[in-house]
Each structure stands twice: as structure tokens, then as C-alpha cells.
Amino acid sequence: MKKVFINGYGSIGGRITAFLKDDPEISVIGVGKYSPDDKVNQAISKGLSVYVPERKIPDFKNYEISGSIESALDDCDLVIDASPEGYGYRNKKNLYEPKNLLAIYQGGETTTGDQAVSDLLFNSRANYDLSRDKRHVMQGSCNVTGMGRILEPLREKFGDSIIRFDVTLVRRWADIEQTEKKITDTIEMTEKPHHGEDVKTYFGKDSPLFVRAIKVPTRQMHLHIMDVRFKDTAPNPSEIHDIFTNEFGVATLWTAKGTKDVRDYASTMGFNFTDTNMIHIHANMTVSIGDTVQIMYSDDQTGIVIPENHMLMQSMLFGKSYQEAFSHTESIFHMKEKKQKLEEHFAKEG
Ligand SMILES: NC(=O)c1ccc[n+]([C@@H]2O[C@H](COP(=O)([O-])OP(=O)(O)OC[C@H]3O[C@@H](n4cnc5c(N)ncnc54)[C@H](OP(=O)(O)O)[C@@H]3O)[C@@H](O)[C@H]2O)c1
User: Fold this and answer.
1) Quick one: pLDDT band at residue 165, thresholds 50, 70, 90?
2) What's the pLDDT band for 271 if we cut at 50, 70, 90?
3) Distance of alpha carbon 6 from alpha carbon 79, whole angstroms
4) Given the CA of residue 13, which atom of ligand 1 is nearest to it?
5) For position 316, what pLDDT does the model report?
6) 177 pocket-lining for ligand 1 (C-beta < 6 Å)
7) Ligand 1 site, residue 140, Cβ cutoff 6 A
8) CATH number of the structural domain spanning residue 252
9) Edge to edge, what strands does the sheet with 78-81 contain?
10) Which residue among 68, 83, 94 is best mutated to probe the pocket of ligand 1, counting the most ligand atoms within 8 A of its Cβ?
11) The domain containing residue 154 runs over which residues?
12) In DSSP terms, which residues pair with 27 in a beta bridge?
């Protein structure tokens, strides 16, 4: 059994930990906490060992912590870093590299420039095999992962007959459990969003993909508005939807009025958290006009990257093939069943 440490126990780290506890191939040796707050006891009550930075041990004197992060990492095969943006790079330099550890980073980091955590931005659909011999790999962010789930199948089916993709990312302000983060009543413009360049690391640096982004005051998922332009007349909506019938992590919904409908239904499905772990094409919004197809899909910001981390971990730790990793991830995340339930609940009326 391989030993994994999760450094950071927020929206992403908490979820990764919950799923890894169900994985018989993995022993979760503990989670890293940085602030002495309620989440320490929440983690302990779930049977987790909590470790904190050596220098902060005195701050946690009122909690039953298990020791320092530094010592926990001495007895570990792979670390999943789930720290706030930018801290992953510092952890790599200060902790993981000196201890010669395998490490996975999250999408708030970068794969370019002098703060790059890796030269590979992982997307299981696009570049699974490239991760197998790497020691440090970054999982793409939720928006980058979601875009890949639409772009790759479209390109595989229509290839050069597509001449450009224009995407507007409507990003959520905060996550549901980030109650300390206030939602501000404004629509914020994002200058030079990184998402397009991130996607191009696996989609091709010269691909005709143009991305802009705004942030809106909601906690209920991201929404991507995508226009796909073809050389000639664009396919009709059903030809587009058909491509995604058997696609992993993509549900096609007809009757959701908004992102909260999807989240609310997810909370009744009986799985971990209120996650769907996927994107949802809002099929009633797909329109074909002349040479262009308009598509909208929502992206489960907190859930979508968790099965991806699980796939990546199996590649790096066990050198599994895509199919082997995929089957094991499916046995833990039940993505097929989730997709089916969502599609039945939001099926076309009449
Ligand atoms: N939230 C999303 O929807 C989402 C989706 C995809 C990717 N991501 C990416 O995932 C990463 C984590 O985001 P998040 O939303 O989970 O953040 P978050 O909820 O704010 O949690 C961050 C966690 O990191 C801990 N932490 C603080 N300093 C740290 C350090 N130096 N090293 C390691 N951990 C540290 C925090 O501990 P304390 O609470 O104890 O201070 C907290 O538990 C970011 O790169 C983000 O861009 C987020």
C-alpha cells in the first residue's frame, strides 16, 4: 500500500482526502493544516491525522495534532499539494524537492516561467501517458479541466473543419464551504486570464482558442459560453450532443434552469459532498447558426478536479495504464452512475 499525504485541507484537499480514504490501494498518512481552527477537529473526528508546520506547533497546543508536516513527509510516497495559489511552488522548493518526493500540484500554480511547479499540466483525456515518469505534475484548474472535456471530443470528431473556438468563462466567486469569503455584488473583469494558455499546453500552442473571463457573485459553479466556428455550415445541435453520449465526466442536461438546480439535485444523489465531479452541457442552449455552434456548459468547480487527481496519482505512484487507472477511479467515483442520474433527472421533456 502506498502512503499519501495531503498538504492543505480546504475545498480541494478536503475532497481529495475523503475519496482517498475509500481507496484500498492508498494509506492516507495525514493532512496538513496551517490555521488552528474548527477544521482541525473536524479532520480528527473523521479519523485523520493532522500535521502542522514545525514552526506553528505551539499555535495548535489546544488540538490533538499528530506532529509536524516536515516529519510526516519523511514517511510518504507521494504528496498531493492543495495549498492556496502560489504556495505549491514554495512547498516544492522548501519541502518536496529536498525530500525527493513525488508531488501533485493544483491549478492555482503555473507550468511556465520561473515559478513553474512542473513542465506538465495534466488532463487525463489529453495527456495521461506523459505523466507516468514525472516526479512533479500540476493538475489543471477546474476551468481548464472543464474546457478540455469539451474541446478534445470536438476536435477528434470535426478536426480541421473547426476554424476557431471562442470561450467566455463566467466564473464563480467562491466555493460553498468557503463561508469566510464574502460574495461582492459586482461583475469583475479578469485581465489576461491564464486559462486559454493553460489549455493550449495540451491542446496545442497554436490552436485557435480565444478565452476571456469574468467573475460573478455566485458559489454555484462556473458557466462557460463557447462559440465554435466551422469552415462551412456548422453541425446541428444533436450532432454535437451525440459526441458526448459516452464521454467520461460530461452530462447532457435539458431542463436545468440554472447552476443551482444542478447543485441542489447533486446533494440528493447520495454521493460525497454536493459534487457531480463533471461538466454539464445545457443542451437546451445549444444553437447552430450558419457556420457557428453556440454551446453552454456548467463546471462543478470543486468536484471536477478530484477524479483527475486520482487518475494522476495512480499514474505517478503505480505507473498504471490509462484504462487501469480509469477503472479504479470509476470504482471510487461512480461517474457513470452520476452521469446517468443527472441525465435522467434533467431529461428532455415530452
Ligand atoms: N476551489 C476550487 O474550486 C478549485 C478548483 C480547482 C483547483 N483549485 C486549486 O486548488 C488549490 C487549493 O484551492 P482551495 O480552493 O482548496 O483553497 P482553500 O479552500 O483556501 O484551502 C487551502 C488550504 O491550504 C492550506 N494552506 C495554507 N497555507 C499552506 C501552505 N503553505 N502549504 C500547504 N497548504 C497550505 C490552508 O490551511 P488552513 O485553512 O489551515 O490555513 C487550507 O486548508 C489552489 O491552487 C486552487 O487554485 C481550486
Assistant:
1) very high
2) confident
3) 6
4) 16
5) 98
6) no
7) no
8) 3.30.360.10
9) 67-68, 50-52, 26-32, 2-7, 78-81, 102-105, 136-139, 121-122
10) 83
11) 142-302+334-345
12) 3
Q: Kindly report the CATH number assigned to the domain that includes residue 133.
A: 3.40.50.720
Continuous segment of H or E residues that includes residue 43: helix 38-45
Which among 20, 28, 142, 213 is annotated as catalytic?
A: 142
Specify the amino acid at residue 346. F
Spatial CA neighbour of 342 closest among 257, 280, 286: 280
Ligand 1 touching residue 8 (CB < 6 A): yes
> Contacts for 28-32 with beta carbons within 8 Å, 24 or more apart?
28/4, 29/3, 29/4, 29/5, 29/72, 29/75, 29/76, 30/5, 30/6, 30/66, 30/72, 31/5, 31/6, 31/7, 32/5, 32/6, 32/7, 32/8, 32/69, 32/72
Both 67 and 165 in a single domain? Answer: no
Q: Is the pLDDT of residue 205 over 90?
A: yes
pLDDT at residue 350 is higher than 80: no
Note the pLDDT tens digit of each residue in 235-258: 999 999 999 999 999 999 999 999
Residues 150 and 265 grouped into a single domain: yes
Continuous segment of H or E residues that includes residue 52: strand 50-52
In the reported structure, the alpha carbon of residue 13 is separated from the centroid of ligand 1 by a whole-number distance in angstroms of: 7
Range of weakest confidence among 97-101, 144-148, 270-274: 270-274
Q: What is the pLDDT of residues 44-82, one digit of tens each?
A: 999 999 999 999 999 999 999 999 999 999 999 999 999
Residue 63, amino acid: Y
Instruction: Provide the pLDDT for residue 95.
Output: 98
Does residue 187 surpass a pLDDT of 90?
yes
* Burial of 224 (C-beta count, 10 Å sphere; 0-12/13-18/19+): buried
